[in-house]
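Re: [ENG-882] Designed sequences occasionally contain unexpected residues at chain ends

Forwarding the minimal case from QA. Structure tokens:
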């Protein structure tokens, strides 16, 4: 019973802490919201229930995830020697395969 009550309380999350953080990039609020909402779209149902997301916020999360997915090739092109390329080299997979996932 105690566990059920604890799960019903809104929980503090790193995402909530990040919502108030500032970044030294152009359109920081927009990019921060885009990445945070896209991350929320990846959460399982039980985690969304714990966060208490409204249906409107869930729709925003799905739209943000789709927007981020659609601009992913631009990020990959800009980060030719980024973490994804380095991970590919580490496991001996050609980095050129990354653009096939877009």
């Amino acid at each position: 019973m105690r566990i059920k009550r604890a799960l019903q309380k809104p929980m503090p999350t790193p995402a909530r802490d990040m919502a108030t953080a500032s970044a030294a990039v152009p359109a920081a609020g927009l990019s921060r919201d885009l990445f945070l909402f896209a991350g929320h779209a990846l959460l399982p149902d039980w985690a969304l229930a714990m966060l208490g997301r409204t249906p409107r916020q869930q729709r925003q999360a799905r739209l943000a995830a789709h927007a981020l997915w659609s601009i992913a090739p631009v990020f990959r092109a800009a980060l030719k020697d980024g973490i994804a390329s380095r991970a590919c080299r580490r496991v001996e997979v050609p980095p050129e395969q990354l653009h096939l996932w877009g």
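QA comment: On inspection the terminal residues look reasonable. Helices lie at 2-8, 14-18, 28-41, 45-51, 55-78, 83-90. Proposing we downgrade this to a documentation issue.
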